Amino acid sequence: MRRPDTRQTILRHGPVVRIAHALLALSVIVLIVSGLGMAERLPGQAVSMLGGHVWLGDLHRQLGLVFGVAVAGLMLFGPAAGRRLIRDMCRFRRGDATWFRSFVRYVLAPSRHRPQSHDGRFDPGQRIVFAVILGSAAVLTVSAAALYLAPVGSTSLLAWALRIHVVAAVIFIAALAVHVLVGVGLLASHRNIGRVMFGDGRVKQGLAYTLWPTWTAGQITDSNADAVAGQQHGTPAAASGHTDLARRLDKARPE
């Protein structure tokens, strides 16, 4: 079979998703910096330059409230596309566990290995990171609400809510760091992937087939898919659904 054309690109995210991602990223950065300032985890000079503890505290509380309400509203009442996106982020399938071993080999030696095929919109590693980010963000929102609504004098409740908030923040930042490391394309296995969110939203077909084989097969037309899949013994390859096409494309990818 003919190998995928690595010169062609495929649209991964449209402008609406990229703009929403940029606004979300900016909000999260402000929340992290203001939270670290409140917790005295930033140098005093930096805190002063940013407006001081009181201003950072007010900013963190107000933006955190807006952020939590907005995310909850999107998940509960947002457009169907947004709910499908969240479902795809957190949906796991039988066989995903064996994907991780192949992915580690791929990251260490992308020219010699490739990850195991899967049929998700996001690969299993992405889904775990997204699940941790969403879960820790939910805990941050609930613990923040407890800090807001706790009755005056409830010292024990406030102390526990603050501890939980701090632990959830550490987990959130750690998962976010993994997401950023991969998402900006620092890994050789994900070179130029940053343009998916911070460029034109497109990704090279070869890389798309490697990371999201079934999703990629579902985004291209049958004629283009057959052209990429190639012909065997001069007979056009017949596609029987996205999963079958992804398997054939997986065989066509270079080792």
Q: Helix amount, in percent?
A: 55-70%
Radius of gyration over all CA atoms, rounded: 22 Å
- Form type: elongated
Find the CATH topology.
Fumarate Reductase Cytochrome B subunit
What is the total tally of β strands? 4
What CATH first level would be assigned? Mainly Alpha
CATH architecture heading = Up-down Bundle
In a nutshell, what does this entry contain?
With 255 residues, the protein is mainly alpha-helical.
Provide a descriptive summary of the structure in words.
The protein is mostly helical. The protein has one domain (9-252): Fumarate Reductase Cytochrome B subunit, CATH 1.20.950. It is built from twelve helices and four strands. It has helices spanning 15-38, 44-49, 53-77, 80-90, 99-108, 124-149, 155-183, 195-198, 205-211, 213-219, 222-229, 242-252, and strands at residues 9-11, 202-204, 231-232, 235-236. The strands form two sheets. Strands 1-2 form a two-stranded antiparallel ribbon. A two-stranded antiparallel ribbon has the order 3-4. β3 (231-232) and β4 form a beta hairpin. α6 (124-149) runs antiparallel to α7 (155-183), α9 (205-211) crosses α10 and α10 (213-219) packs across α12. 22% of the residues are buried.
Q: What key phrases describe this protein's structure?
A:
single chain; 255 residues; mainly alpha; Fumarate Reductase Cytochrome B subunit; two-stranded antiparallel ribbon; 12 helices; 4 strands
